[in-house]
Amino acid sequence: MVRDSAATRNRILDAAIGEFSAYGLAGARIDRIAEAAEANKRSIYVYYESKEGLFTAALHRVIGDLVEAVPLTEDDLPGYAGRMFDYLLVHPEALRMSMWRHLERPAKGPDAAEVYAHKIEAMAGGGGGLTASGLPPADLLVLVQGLASSWLISPEDLLCADGSDPYSPERLAAHRASLVEAARRLCAPAQTPGGPNPP
Amino acid sequence: MVRDSAATRNRILDAAIGEFSAYGLAGARIDRIAEAAEANKRSIYVYYESKEGLFTAALHRVIGDLVEAVPLTEDDLPGYAGRMFDYLLVHPEALRMSMWRHLERPAKGPDAAEVYAHKIEAMAGGGGGLTASGLPPADLLVLVQGLASSWLISPEDLLCADGSDPYSPERLAAHRASLVEAARRLCAPAQTPGGPNPP
DNA sequence: ACCTGGTAAGTAACCGGTTATTGACAAACA
DNA sequence: TGTTTGTCAATAACCGGTTACTTACCAGGT
Question: Which residue of A94, A120, A187, B50 could cross-link A137, Cys pair, CB 3.0 to 4.6 Å?
Fold first, then answer.
């Protein structure tokens, strides 16, 4: 047997991400994590203190990877939405962990408030608190993220309603185009001067 | 003590909605439901068979109430988005139960595929599979629902990034306006003839 | 009006299995 | 030798589900 604490730590974290992403904090089983990690149950407590601690660590890893892989390009929100969609498609655990977090432990995990604040400031830049689109930057950001994830959080019956297979490559590509176009429309300059939120 | 099986059934279902919405299927505790319902644990199994059966029943009630209270007006999607936002704000359990469903039991709960199919057909009506906006109707529907719920599923750090209290009445009203305007832009006829999805 | 027996509704105690967590100890490294 | 890393088995609490039982209600005979 080779002893390598860092490797064991990583195997545990990987297994935890798989387990928590599938079952959530309440549904996850420490035994299954230990087995999947090919590690002893005890080492989980040595390295991560508790089930909650392991969940928090998993949250940090998954969401950290996401924000690193999909940088928030505030000057190109449609592109950001498209790349976010692509990433979530390849990494379903990122979206699932975010949802578990929202439902089970909203206060845990990374806090990116300052990062967001900077981006929002950059978007507003001289526009009197509004973007060129006439929408408040924070709202725009939230809405664009809603667009990016909407397909992946919609119930099956809605996705299947038009008769196509919602996860076929063609369907996904078509929806990606729709979503990027939608984001483009949100970001386009307002047509009526004064915009939808007149002062 | 007054004996009324229908009333007991309802108390149990109400308590179950509160419990499942707060903790999910795996996190919910039958004992707590029984206590909150002022009913005996046994009656839960008499009326609903199992924890899963009770969860499914809760799903049907909550989502049934939602689709009844917020009719899908396919000829007025911005209005639909606004009303959906209002409802979800007053009934957080509706959104939470939908999320638990997606994560824990995607196959359970009501199936509205036919209803959606009809709406989508109506939206497409003669447009060669596209709406006047140039977007496929199914995509448009999914995206609009994404807009309606985006604020309520966003992480706290993003909502707070612009310094305001994300759940103050003023902030909510402002975001509602943003979201309805966003839906309006998605539904507006495409500016470039041929649209974003040329044949 | 008054029993009375059957049934629906409700209750408390309990059970077997599971679960997170820990203590005691052995093996490997430095 | 002392420290780190890993193993095994125990423990204490918990939880979904069930058993055995009591209480209220009511139809119909007398």
Answer: A120
Q: Higher pLDDT residue, A20 or A1?
A: A20
Q: Alpha-carbon distance B96 to B22, whole Å?
A: 8
Comparing CA positions, the residue from B147, B143, B139, B110 lying closest to residue B123 is: B139
Residue B77 near residue B185 (C-beta atoms within 8 A):
no
**Cα–Cα distance for residue pair B179/B169, rounded to 1 Å:** 15
Q: Where are the domains of chain A?
A: 1-61, 70-192
pLDDT along chain B (199 residues), means of 10: 86 98 98 96 96 98 98 97 98 98 98 95 82 92 98 97 95 98 94 46
Q: Rounded to an integer, what distance in angstroms lies between the CA atom of residue B66 and that of residue A41? A: 44
Give the closest-approach CA distance of B96 to chain A in angstroms: 7
Rounded Cα gap, residues B180 and B150, in angstroms: 12
Residue A189: partners with Cβ closer than 8 Å, 6 or more residues away: A132, A133, A134
| Strand nucleotide closest to residue A45 (CA to C1') | C21
Task: Kindly report the CATH class assigned to A1-61.
Answer: mainly alpha
pLDDT band at A129 (very low <50, low <70, confident <90, very high): confident
Number of H helices, E strands in chain B: 10, 0
User: Under CATH, to which class is B5-187 assigned?
Assistant: mainly alpha
Joined tokens for residue A86: 């692509």
Instruction: Evaluate if the CB of B29 falls below 7 Å from strand C.
Output: no
Q: Residue A103 in contact with residue B99, Cβ under 8 Å?
A: yes
Collect all residues of chain A within an 8 Å Cβ-Cβ radius of residue B159.
138, 142
Higher pLDDT, A110 or A193: A110
Structure tokens at A135: 């929408």
